[in-house]
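We treat protein structure as text, and this decision shapes the records that our systems exchange. Such a record has a labelled line for the sequence and another for the backbone structure tokens. The record that follows is passed on verbatim for readers who wish to inspect the format:
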Amino acid sequence: MEVAGTRAGVPALVRLRPPLLGLAVVLAEWTRVLAARMPGWEGPALLAGGLLLCLPALFVPFESLGLSRRALGLRLLAGITLAGVLLLPATIRGAALPVLPTGLLVPAALVAVGEEVAFRGALFAALETAYGPAAAVLGSTAAFVLAHVLSHPLAFLPTVATLGLLLGLWRWAFRDLIAPISAHVLADLAL
């Protein structure tokens, strides 16, 4: 029996993988956020959370993650450009960008890498295999927003959705995760 919205011939186990991966990465992100609220745990929670978010990549074929080194310089340049786009609203508002404490720079960068590997790497790949590209972009964006419910004010969640959608569309259009990782790291370090 064909499940509505699934791709023909996709085994049931492949269709089950995306929701399980999505749940795992959202719970990992929530755990990281809650742990970081404990006094003295912010840095360790960021480090552990970033590493934990990279684990879902083990459950999808590496070649489906978008981490090719082909045209690496161009992909990094694209990431810098995407970061500029992500930071544009704050720049236009004239908002002063907060300065991240030096001890949290590497842990914060690791979380950004982990989020990209989890959401637009592993989850995106699993969703695309099971349900197609539209589901991959929209599903990874929805999970990304849900993952940020505990760490961001409700009024900021549309911005998180826009970020997720932009990076998800890039991931789909260019089969690339390097630029989204670079953009996310730079934007998080600047904000």
User: Anything to note?
Assistant: Residues 1-5 have pLDDT under 50 and may be disordered. The helical segments are 12-36, 42-54, 72-93, 105-131, 133-147, 157-174, 178-190.
